[in-house]
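User: Can you predict the 3D structure for this chain?
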Amino acid sequence: MGFLKEFQSFAMRGNVMDMAVGIIIGGAFGKIVSSLVADIIMPPIGVLIGGINFTDLVVTVKHASVNAAGQAVPAVTINYGTFIQTIFDFTIIAFAIFLMIKGINSFHQKKTETAAATPPEPTKEEQLLTEIRDLLKEKW
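Assistant: Here is the predicted structure, written as structure tokens:
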């Protein structure tokens, strides 16, 4: 039973749960960005470069054929258009994450600057020492 309790305490720690939520949200975010790239951004780019759909760009290594048993053998292709599409997806995801992190860092920096702008209240000991110093200055 000790092993199960140890596993449960590991799995329920805050970091593990935060990481799980981050991975799930990241997966959903990736799907959104992929749709943004494939359905919104790439069609106008394709029109600008002559109506080319990147996912249709392939190099055929071996054409489709029919073998001796009468079964269709699919073509062998290098799908470099899909690779280009994936690079666009990655670039946009990386840029979106960069903007998000930059915004969060900016927020934390402003928060830190605000906290640093207001000096902390002196402790009672510091106030007492200041009073003693001021009294000694008056006597001398």
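Residues 80-117 form the longest helix (38 residues). The chain has a mean pLDDT of 83.
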